[in-house]
Amino acid sequence: MSDKEQARTGWPDVARAWGLELSAGQLAQFSAYEALLLEWNERISLTAIRAPEEIRVRHFLDSLACATATGPLDGRALIDVGSGAGFPGLPLKILYPGLRLTLVDSVGKKARFLEMVAAELGLRDVTVLAERAETLGQDAAHRERYDWAVARAVAELRVLVELLLPLCRVGGAALAQKGESAAEEMRAATGAIAALGGGAPRLSPVQLPGVAETHYLVVIDKRQPTDPRYPRRAGVPHKRPL
Ligand code: SAM
């Protein structure tokens, strides 16, 4: 499908072209999510994107793009680090109701919003944690427990891998949603990825309808257990990237 054709097509059609089919029930869940996002955004700052069409493309569709890299996620354990208003975790949960989803954000009011959305949408098996990813990465209940650790717009890749890879089981993978700087960030993260037990990253482009810039999915397989020194304590990965 060309960009022009995509721009003329509704967002569920774009998802279908990616091989992701949404039922009427799932579309109703997305509508309810959109309404809650608009309503709560008036009270707490959740997203700078406020126009409904932009929410559908830049939040819902952009999040669903992850599924083109992960494949079906029913029965899988996925942790979304720095989930904010729920992206990409909640759209993936709507797409795959059997996903075992953990949403993490260090800001308490965002965590409360996420709990409320999960309850209102009737989503089961969603755990919300108001925590720092660095803390969870050293907690036996979370360390190396997930098939997928994902994040969008949380940190540059060499910092982000220290938050994500310790949470992945060996054989699992980290997925980072990135913008135009993806390839450059990948090069800068080479040493950090190796130190944390990751394999060579793979990059795949995502073109959203009506969005000029290309987005990228960076997937890093977890090959070896992460050295117990990592992640370092909260804030250190940002201050002194590996
Ligand atoms: N992922 C969402 C999205 O793409 O719309 C939110 C992105 S927002 C720019 C970054 C979020 O990451 C914020 O809500 C912030 O509180 C959270 N965050 C940043 N560092 C974190 C950390 N170390 N542990 C947990 N959450 C973190």
Architecture overview:
The structure is a single chain. By secondary structure, the protein is an alpha/beta fold. It has a single domain, classed as Vaccinia Virus protein VP39 (Rossmann fold, 3-Layer(aba) Sandwich), CATH 3.40.50.150. Helix content is 40%, strand content 18%. The chain is built from twelve helices and seven strands. It has a seven-stranded mixed beta sheet with strand order 3-2-1-4-5-7-6, with helices on both faces. Helix 2 (11-17) packs parallel to helix 4 and helix 4 crosses helix 6. The N and C termini lie far apart (40 Å). Bound molecules: S-adenosylmethionine. The site of S-adenosylmethionine (SAM) has 18 residues, from helix 8.
Which descriptors apply to this entry?
single chain, 242 residues, alpha/beta, Rossmann fold, 7-stranded mixed sheet, 12 helices, 18% strand, globular, binds S-adenosylmethionine
User: What small ligands are held by the chains?
Assistant: S-adenosylmethionine
The parts where pLDDT drops under 50 for at least 5 residues are none
Q: What is the domain total for the residues?
A: 1
Q: Order of strands across the biggest sheet?
A: 3-2-1-4-5-7-6
**The CATH H-level homologous superfamily:** Vaccinia Virus protein VP39
Beta-strand portion reads 15-25%
Helix and strand element order: HHHHHEHEHEHEHEHHEEH
Number of helices: 12
